[in-house]
Design goal:
By secondary structure, the chain is an alpha/beta fold. About 30% of the residues lie in helices and about 20% in strands.
């Protein structure tokens, strides 16, 4: 299998170019074509000689691939299906909102975390995406040049694929890459503590923590990872960082009727987050098969939001997008062979 160039730094691209007999400056040319001009073939790299392009194509794979399927929601949300490893696939979602175009990025095929309310978690784990697989989602959606933001909230736990995710983010935020501000990128995690600390130290991107319940036993009943990385320890780590400036930390809270949506849970959530500059995003649960809970009614969500707001916690209800094409939170699943 040919080595993929997508995800390499200019220095690594220089080495790859020299390895096949090209001049060292070809590495800089490759970076500009791939990350600035965002071409999807060697043939489009017209300032590299025809022979050089042929040598690149013989030795390397650029790393881009077209989506296999595209589905469009009634609200304009668009879901893309990409192939992965010949047997599985991953999904990414483009969410339009006035002048914003946000890409919801997948980092794994399936997921190891096993959250019981998530379709991705229910399917098991099928593999980590490479940096090329992650960046291909940015390059191969129809809206590639219109994207304004990215959220690593698609399939998988990003911090369970730390090295590849951080490499992709480096390309997104480096001057030689997409040159995005880190403020345009948000990474969502259940709180893989060792890699969460690495991410907080090594990146300036926003962080969103999947919390969903302030009580340890109840959270563990839905999220097995609570036993390995308790929410209390995640909060202790976050309190050691400054989120009063441009970098944000938020908490995702999916609401289940009669389970985590009453005054007791609201007040416990306020106590849990006390002293931390943050935002809580309330998420409407999207029904999945063989799961015992229903979504909380909107008036209940509004009362929960207002109770948090009165106690000084910034809280919003996230708009649900793309539910009719199974593109909303917790519904991404892809396709997988059962051999």
């Amino acid at each position: 299998m040919k080595q993929k160039l997508l995800g390499m730094s200019p220095a690594e691209l220089k080495e790859a170019a020299v390895r096949i007999g090209l001049k060292p400056y070809a590495g800089k040319q490759l970076a500009e074509w791939m990350y600035v001009r965002r071409v999807r073939s060697f043939e489009a790299m017209t300032n590299i000689s025809k022979e050089g392009r042929a040598a690149l194509a013989d030795s390397y794979d650029l790393g881009t691939s077209d989506p296999v399927e595209v589905h469009v929601s009634s609200d304009g949300t668009k879901k893309y299906l990409f192939g992965f490893d010949g047997k599985s696939s991953i999904e990414s979602v483009v969410i339009p909102d006035e002048d914003r175009r946000t890409l919801c990025v997948s980092s794994q095929s399936g997921c190891r975390m096993g959250c019981k309310f998530c379709m991705t978690g229910r399917q098991g784990f099928h593999g980590n995406l490479s940096a090329a697989d992650i960046l291909n989602q940015f390059l191969s959606v129809e809206e590639s040049h219109e994207l304004t933001n990215a959220v690593f909230m698609g399939m998988g736990e990003p911090l369970d694929n730390y090295d590849n995710v951080l490499r992709a983010i480096e390309v997104l935020t480096s001057d030689w890459g997409f040159a995005w501000s880190p403020k345009r990128v948000t990474l969502s995690t259940i709180g893989v503590l060792p890699n969460l600390k690495r991410f907080l130290d090594g990146s300036r991107c926003h962080i969103a923590v999947s919390l969903h319940n302030p009580f340890a036993e109840e959270r563990a009943s839905m999220m097995p990872v609570q036993k390995a990385w308790p929410a209390s320890e995640i909060l202790d780590l976050l309190r050691s960082y400054d989120f009063s400036g441009q970098r944000r930390v938020s908490f995702e809270y999916t609401m289940f009727a009669g389970f985590n949506d009453d005054k007791v849970h609201a007040d416990a959530l306020v106590r849990l987050l006390r002293g931390l500059e943050c935002r809580v995003n309330l998420i409407r649960f999207h029904r999945i098969p063989d799961f015992p809970y229903d979504p909380s009614p909107l008036p209940v969500m509004e009362a929960f939001r207002d109770r948090l707001s009165r106690q000084g916690v910034t809280c919003t209800i996230r708009a649900s997008r793309g539910e009719d094409i199974f593109a909303a939170c917790g519904l991404l699943a892809g396709k997988h062979d059962k051999d």
